[in-house]
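Sample pair:
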Amino acid sequence: MGDPTADAGRTDRGPSLRRTPRQARSRARLARVLAAAERVLIDEGVEALTTTRVAAAAKVSVGSLYQYLPDRNAIIDALAAGYFAKLEAVMDDLVPAAAEQRWDDPVGVLIDAYAGLYRAEHGFRALWFGSGLTERTRDADREHKRRMGDGIRRVLLALDLADDDEALGRACHAAVLAADALAQEAFRRDADGDADLLDEAKVMLRGYLGAIAARYRGGRRARG
């Protein structure tokens, strides 16, 4: 996941820690705590994410953990913020790749990329498919999906498939909501992702994004 503390303290992308680590040693300790929390999540489920269990797994005192993560909700929020940051970083990398490689099938590339992350991130699946998501994490997830929609908007612009306007942003957000629901169902059915359902997601989204692109092509012809 990279540095799990990188976004955990930011109010715009996830939960605020009780205290943001400033020194390298403190950042390393928090990273160790979050890595241990992820192992507990994967091996034992979201119900096991208590401060006592995570502190024991990280080999730190409960008091040391409380400096940053005062309760299980804070642990869940911090883990979720790390997953959101990773997903958004992948999207940020895909935008210049789309411009450079001029993808013939952007929907296929994007869904395959995120299906790969679902397969690799066992903790993400354990958290989302468990029953312990907090209201703060659900709110953060809604904002995360808006940022992912903006990533889709940037991909379409990089491929010169659309013109930038408010309607494009709304359509790309809708595409992300649909793709996320289908991906979650595919991975609930099968840990590797139900291939048939993922293929259906591609068919649906190709049609939707194709319609968006056609809308803008029509507008360009009219202006021409």
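The two ends are 47 Å apart (CA to CA).
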